[in-house]
Amino acid sequence: MARPTQTKNLLGSARSKISPRIRVIANATDEVNAVRAQAAANLRVEGGAPLRKPSPLVDREAFEVRKTPKFSTMHELPRRSQVNVFITRHQTEPDTYDEIRDVVRAVGEVALSCRCRGDQMLATVRIADVPKLAEHPAVLGIELAETLRAPRPKTGDAAVTAPSPQLRRVEGEDGEGVLIGIVDVQGFDFAHEDFLDAKGNTRFVEIWDQGGVHRPSPGKPKEPFDYGSKLTATHFAAALREAKKRGLSATAYEPQSSMEPGSHGTHVASIAAGNRGVCPKAEIVAVLLSLGKQDEDRRQSFYDSTRLADAIDYLVRFADGKKKPISINVSLGTNGHAHDGSSAINRWIDSALTVPGRAVCVAAGNAGQEKAESDQDLGFILGRIHTSGRITARGLTADIDWLVMGTGLHDVSENELEIWYSPADRFAVQVKPPGPTSKWTEVIGPGDFIENRQLSDGTFLSIYNELYYPSNGANYIAVYLTPFWSRTAVKGIAAGTWRVRLIGEEVRDGRYDGWIERDDPVRVGGGSNYWAFPSFLAEASNVDRSSISSLACGHNVVAVANLDEHFEKINISSSQGPTRDGRSKPEIAAPGTDIVAAGGFMDPEGKAWIQMTGTSMASPYVAGVVGLMLARNPSLTAAQIVGIIQRTALPLPGADYIWRDDAGYGRIRPSACLDEVAALAKRTDRTKP
Q: Are the CB atoms for 180 and 269 separated by under 8 Å?
């Protein structure tokens, strides 16, 4: 029977540099990781594994588990399991090329691929090679890439017509000379009428399809961007000509790895830069993040935050080559990490934004709903992701109730809760599984951990109590719930309330914040009751703020909330700030409710337009406005853009100019932003009396 097992220290003397999530994966066989990789975007198993198709699921009550599990010892790390990681390296002053080259060379000896930005590196490594990497003196920490969550906007059912060409237009502005970059999913319908100019040519100038096989990749082997397919303006023009001759869709002649009807990526691009969008004459360059549809594809592919880092680098490099400013939109999100801008992907994007003429807008997220509005409303499940509180003195405790779906549903995904607190404090932690006879674990103090302990119900529990995270200095506690996985069977996590108890050992500050890294609710086979389903916090433990996507917590990105224009208020699903370190995110709100834009890859006899609701729709509106700002002044910095948007925001009815956790500083005013850009260069000499 294959299962996660206890290990002796196979990760070596530098184990403290390796993030707990990597250690959980390292404490499992390739067979177990092959099952895990079906849902883990940052893990793949070389050559796959001989799983049944689909991987079977076994009813919890029918699956016998030893009351006192007997652990075996792993004698070697899994050799076929590979992960995408961010590596933080030591920088000297000055940071010479030779020193950078030496670190890259050292990492390259064990990494399957690597690339560098500032003090960070991206690498794909075998788990078995992680200890050697961690032992390098220039390596400060190794962090697993974060899973990118597919956007789930609400889609309207009613038939809709094309929006007015003036709906999103700013008088006298069209974005000519600017690039709009889109990082998204489900494909880009470059042949949709909303992207065709007067001559019938598409304004998409390039698409990097990261999962594509139809065209060569944009990079050479072992160099950046050496995967997927690059589709160019030449390819699009040829496909449009051929489609016109034969009466077929141009995308059939130039296919992408994902071309979903009503595609999210097409809709987003239409808002920012369609003919009925904010920047109707901007050129569009896009990156398609592709998720494998088949189980075997997912086990052998990556779709995580390193792919987003590559996408950002690709777009800014393209803009540099064209000598044009670029406004990039990312309507994707993550819930993990500290929500203070210190995650690897936050720092990577912030580093890219130190160059003028670049900006990134990010959707705040759709985790704002705390309570159900009707008996059939389950939106609150995706909203109950954040908890916080304060332990005021030594010996006092705080309990967090964490719910795993029951009522006949079996959660066969991993669940993760991270709790971040001040480096001045020392907290211990205990966990009590569901059930009237369950018992608390022993107290896990700072520096202690439990790794893949099998409980009596079959669930595997891991707890890590870590001190001084390298990028922000904070302490954190990570709790992981893992199903029973093997080549022939999967058994879900015990349903019910998992209680996490924090214990104050030394208290100077006492504050803590915790987030669930949620799953997307997906049926995974074995009948209708087996799901990869989001766990969520009990109503009493949930704190209805700081639910903003961690991806939107970067220092120089623009985080965007969803404004319901009809009711002149923020949509109930829009995630709130502030960040854990108290910064004002989101900064701005934009129209994101019942937004009609291009419906990609639709039935030729059906609709060309579709209605969607979510921060995914609000963010590209702001990205379009930023594009207009960069057309006025291509030398604007990301920080200046954020400042101008804040300065010119219009408070919602009944509000003042003080930042609000749901609306930011208010509604974006495109014309006022442009006026402020024009005023930026004005100076008056008052030297003479």
A: yes
- Please, what is the angle between helix 638-648 and helix 615-632, to 10°? 110
Report the residue count for the chain: 689
Structural element, H or E, at residue 561: strand 558-564
| Token output for 159 | 């038939």
Cβ contacts of 245 within 8 Å, gap of 6 or more: none
Give me the residues paired with residue 116 across strands.
121
- What is the Cα 111 distance to its own chain's centre? 24
Phi and psi angles of residue 450, each rounded to the nearest 5 degrees, phi first: -115, 135
Q: Considering the entire predicted model, what is its pTM?
A: 0.92
Compute the half-sphere exposure of residue 423: CA atoms within 13 Å on the CB side of its CA.
8
- Tell me: pLDDT of 302 over 80: no
Please say whether the beta carbons of 463 and 479 come within 8 A. yes
Query: Which one-letter DSSP state was computed for residue 145?
Result: P
Structure tokens at 411: 């959660």
Please, what sign has the CA dihedral across residues 336, 339, 344, 348?
A: positive
What's the gap between Cα 391 and its chain centre?
30
CA triplet 625, 629, 633: central angle to 5 degrees?
Answer: 165
Query: Tokens 């080259």 — which residue?
Result: 101
Decide the pairing of beta strands 426-432 and 326-330: unpaired
pLDDT in tens, 245-280: 998 899 999 999 999 999 999 999 999 999 999 999
- Please state the φ and ψ torsions of residue 328, each to the nearest 5 degrees: -110, 140
Distances (CA, A) of 18 to 132, 157, 603: 11, 47, 49
Mapping DSSP to helix (H, G, I), strand (E, B) and coil, where does residue 345 land?
helix
- Name the one residue in this structure whose structure tokens are 């707990």: 20
Closest residue by Cα to residue 41 from 412, 519, 529: 519
CB burial string 192-218: b at 16+ within 10 A, e below: bebbbeeeeebbbbbbbbbbbeebebb
Lookup result for tokens 């549903």: 409
What's the rounded Cα separation, in Å, for the pair 154 and 171?
A: 30
- Model confidence at 626, in pLDDT bands (50, 70, 90)? very high
Give 69: exposed, middle or buried? Use CB within 10 Å, 0-12, 13-18, 19+. middle
Q: Work out whether strand 43-45 and strand 81-89 pair parallel, antiparallel, or are unpaired.
A: antiparallel
Domain boundaries, the chain: 6-144, 154-367+549-678
Angstrom distance (rounded) from CA 532 to CA 76: 30
The CATH H-level superfamily of 154-367+549-678 is: Peptidase S8/S53 domain (3.40.50.200)
Q: pLDDT of 572-583, one tens digit each?
A: 999 999 999 999
Asked if 646 and 585 touch (Cβ cutoff 8 Å), the reply is no
Dihedral sign, Cα of residue 312, residue 315, residue 320, residue 325: negative
Residue with tokens 């994707």: 332
